[in-house]
Design goal:
Elements: E1 11-20, E2 37-44, E3 50-60, E4 67-72, E5 77-78, E6 84-85, E7 89-96, E8 102-112, E9 115-117, E10 128-133, E11 136-140
Parallel strand pairs: 1-3, 4-8
Antiparallel strand pairs: 2-3, 5-6, 7-8, 9-10, 10-11
Length: 160
C-alpha cells in the first residue's frame, strides 16, 4: 500500500495599514486595534492549515490649523478651500491631505469698517479711506469727495 502525503504551505501575509487620527481599525478576528503597532492573528484556511496575518498599523495625524484674519469692508478673502467671502463669520473648510486624511480648517474672518478722513482746509490733500487690518492701519484706494457747488446768485431789489 502506498500512501500519498500532501503538505499544504502555511500562508503568511503582511498588511500595512494607515488610518487617520480618530479612526478605528478592526483586526481580522473582529477586535478593535487599540492603537498603532504590529498585530499578528492566526486563522485556519479551508485546507485546515494556519494562515498568519501580520498587521502593521500606523496612525496618521490630521492637520490641526485655524486661521484668524481680517479684511476691510468692500474687500474679499479667499478661504483655504478656495471659496471667496466678504462677510464676518467663521467658515469651515474640509481639506484632504496627501495621506488621505480629512482636516477641518476653521477660518474666523473679521470685516473692519472703513474710516474716511477729510480736511476742511482747501490746500489739504484729498480725503482718503483707510481701515484697521491685522492691527495695522491700511490706506485704500479712495474716491475724491467733490467740491461743494458754488453759491447761487440771487437777484435783489433796490431798497426804497
Amino acid at each position: 500500500m502506498v500512501a500519498t502525503l500532501t503538505v499544504n504551505a502555511a500562508i503568511d501575509t503582511l498588511v500595512v495599514v494607515q488610518i487617520c487620527t480618530g479612526a478605528s481599525y478592526f483586526l481580522p478576528d473582529g477586535s478593535p486595534a487599540p492603537g498603532p503597532g504590529i498585530y499578528t492573528d492566526t486563522l485556519t484556511t479551508a485546507a485546515g492549515c494556519d494562515s498568519i496575518i501580520t498587521i502593521d498599523l500606523s496612525v496618521v495625524a490630521v492637520i490641526n490649523a485655524s486661521v484668524n484674519t481680517s479684511i476691510c469692508s468692500g474687500q474679499s478673502y479667499t478661504l483655504p478651500g478656495g471659496g471667496v467671502v466678504t462677510l464676518d463669520g467663521i467658515y469651515a473648510d474640509t481639506l484632504t491631505s496627501i495621506n488621505g486624511c480629512d482636516s477641518v480648517i476653521p477660518t474666523t474672518l473679521t470685516v473692519n469698517a472703513r474710516s474716511i478722513r477729510s480736511f476742511s482746509h482747501r490746500s489739504a490733500p484729498a480725503p482718503h479711506t483707510s481701515c484697521l487690518m491685522d492691527h495695522q492701519r491700511r490706506d485704500l484706494a479712495s474716491t475724491p469727495i467733490p467740491s461743494p457747488p458754488p453759491p447761487v446768485a440771487t437777484a435783489s431789489s433796490p431798497s426804497t
